[in-house]
């Protein structure tokens, strides 16, 4: 098994600092499949290539494994492509040999890991279920230019056709840690096989290596299924974990741009987050709601405001992230609340794209700055969960108004307010979505501005209040 990583950045030999492997030495490491060797076929200031060679002993791999499995009593245990074709064993070697580089750390040159580099990755023998098309589908959305040429079964006999192996060359400008994590996850995905027992530990590895890119990948479900060997329980766990945005503090999932005006003046008091919270509270009180669920509650800012108002007799915070719920519990000081107050509030871990009986029966539910974090193809599942299954009397939704982004001087043109936003809608787009949802599920909808209502671009936040047509008020 063999792959190379080439940098053509100025001072290209800085690749050695990033990989923590000196370009002037050959280094060897014992790994579970055999011996991994790192060496540099070329190392100049203009071009530097690091190679990872994995020597696999297929006989040693089956020693001590017992007699079970599909290859038991078969020569397939001893005669196979494992020593030559990139697979999960090469990914394991990557994870061990370049662990620090994958974490994005370089103590000797701490400025290097954050710099995108012009990189070329070559994997000359990569088994790929689905052929070149799948290789393009997996790598291209990550910023790679992909060349994937099928390897012929026998160059001397062309009519035999192509093998299942590809000669893959990836070129792009990425951080080295990103490139290594892409390879770590996608090599076994392309092979569609793991050469070791897949357990819950693999979910942790996938979430860690996929941080920042896997959640929004258009082929996320395919990647998760293949990486976890199609084990349904593990796949479900991984999908939920990926939705947690583990590398982001819950409170940071709000707008990441400052609340100041276009001339750079300090934020007004109250700021936009406070105005949004107050607008939601006003809508809930106007609806007569007393039993409220905050879906995607994050760190509990709205929950704390609800808890201070005795009109709200039952308050439930819901989030897919256990970490966010821990933060909310601390913010609410649940361990210090009097029993009567504690009886009014509870926290629930749940995904908003799956039906959950615990979300049904409320007077009102709130989706405050939540929908823009959902991948557009999964919005339909959220709509069915909230409007179809939970079906509260009132639904309050807030989301950024993308038209207002031009009023933020520090936000580059075309950039969304937060890196985790999957989209941001114009006022017309939000109204069209709200009208379609209301018609589909039997609600009336009205729209309110939040923040300064600019005569040209509208307010920074748009708010919609959905009222179920057969609802008789806040209680049912």
How many strand elements?
Answer: 14
Global outline: elongated
Classified by CATH, the class of the largest domain is Alpha Beta
**What percent strand?**
15-25%
Corresponding CATH superfamily of the largest domain: Vaccinia Virus protein VP39
- The H/E string reads EHEEEHHHEHEEHHHHHEHEHHEEHEHEE
Strand order of the largest sheet: 2-3-4-1-5-7-6
The third-level CATH topology of the largest domain is Rossmann fold
Structurally, how many domains make up the residues? Answer: 2
Q: Helix- and strand-based class? A: alpha/beta
Average pLDDT confidence is: 84
Main β-sheet description? 7 strands, antiparallel
Q: Over the alpha carbons, how many angstroms does the gyration radius reach?
A: 27 Å
**Helical content class:** 25-40%
Number of helices: 15
Low-confidence blocks of residues:
64-73, 245-250, 260-269
Architecture per CATH nomenclature, i.e. the level-2 architecture of the largest domain: 3-Layer(aba) Sandwich
C-alpha end-to-end distance:
65 Å
Domain Hen1 N-terminal: 1-243
Region (Disordered): 247-272
EC number: 2.1.1.386
Protein name: Small RNA 2'-O-methyltransferase
Structure commentary:
The protein is 30% helix and 22% strand. The protein has 476 residues and is an alpha/beta fold. Strands 2-3-4-1-5-7-6 form a seven-stranded antiparallel sheet. The chain folds into two domains: 2-196, c-terminal autoproteolytic domain of nucleoporin nup98; 250-468, Rossmann fold (3-Layer(aba) Sandwich). The chain has helices at residues 14-19, 58-62, 88-97, 99-102, 131-139, 176-191, 201-209, 220-227, 232-242, 272-287, 301-307, 322-332, 339-342, 379-390, 427-441; strands at residues 2-7, 27-31, 34-43, 48-56, 117-127, 145-152, 162-174, 291-295, 314-319, 345-349, 364-368, 394-400, 443-450, 461-468.
